[in-house]
């Protein structure tokens, strides 16, 4: 099994705010996205870029995963963002407004020419109707080593803007797009992070949407405020009951008498070997979370 990295809480932080970047070192988020795009005004783009590159280069954020969202490459700032951020070698570069596989392959080729460390991966925003319709094709670029593609991030606000879908409890208008993107990601071994929840005063609504995202199969949720981190960490982590059940299933299949069996009886029910694989992943995720804690 490949190494699992918890991405329960993925917090956007405006790259133009030095105080916020400093605070990031104390937050329990699994992943920090230093944002050079939506959260930064046009006249602050260049200063934010320099500030974020310096922060990433210091390498003093502990076990937190560091991702930088650059501006789209067809904007006045995108190319300079890519060049500068690549030199700082964050864990990943998040590319917005990707609507075709060709666009992502082009980014990967740029990074290869820059000689970027292979440890820096690419994440992609799925935030346009065309991106949703081409999610499979975009995900398939993960087979090309040059793309370094590792993760999809849902841009649900942009999707709502482009489609005119309404934000309603349960997200019925968006469920087909969410699941299409998730299926495409999983088909090519990618992680996938759910979109943001906008109403900071609605804690119960936020928790409900986190629970929905977890049940749909997302690895975590993008967040817009530090106050959302603790709940996301809790909801996207295996529960104690799930861990105990996973231990029972995994250990049962490891017994010599069950080595060649495809299914066994546990507590009065039939459990297949695929459930053992799921159990091992649950235990690996729980262990990775415990190490972070």
Task: Describe, in plain words, how this protein is organized in 3D.
There is one protein chain. This protein is α/β, with parallel strands linked by helices. An eight-stranded parallel beta barrel has the order 1-2-3-4-5-6-7-8, surrounded by five helices. Strands 9-10 form a two-stranded antiparallel ribbon. β4, α4 and β5 form a beta-alpha-beta unit. α2 packs parallel to α3 and α11 packs across α12. The model has no long low-confidence stretch (mean pLDDT 94).
**Could you describe the largest sheet, including whether it forms a barrel?**
8 strands, parallel, barrel
The best one-word shape is globular
Helix amount:
40-55%
Strand order of the largest sheet: 1-2-3-4-5-6-7-8
Question: Low-confidence segments, ≥5 residues, pLDDT <50?
Answer: none
- Average pLDDT figure: 94
User: How many β-strands, per DSSP?
Assistant: 10
Helices and strands, in N-to-C order? EHEHEHEHEHHEHHEHEHHEEH
Query: Count of helices?
Result: 12
Strand content: 15-25%
Q: Calculate the terminal CA-CA distance, rounded to whole Å.
A: 22 Å
Alpha carbon gyration radius: 20 Å
| Helix-strand category | alpha/beta
Summarize the helices and strands and which ones pair or pack.
Elements lengths: L8 E6 L3 H6 L7 E5 L9 H14 L6 E5 L8 H11 L3 E4 L5 H14 L6 E6 L2 H5 L1 H5 L9 E6 L1 H8 L11 H13 L3 E4 L8 H14 L3 E4 L5 H7 L4 H15 L8 E4 L2 E4 H20 L1
Parallel strand pairs: 1-2, 1-8, 2-3, 3-4, 4-5, 5-6, 6-7, 7-8
Antiparallel strand pairs: 9-10
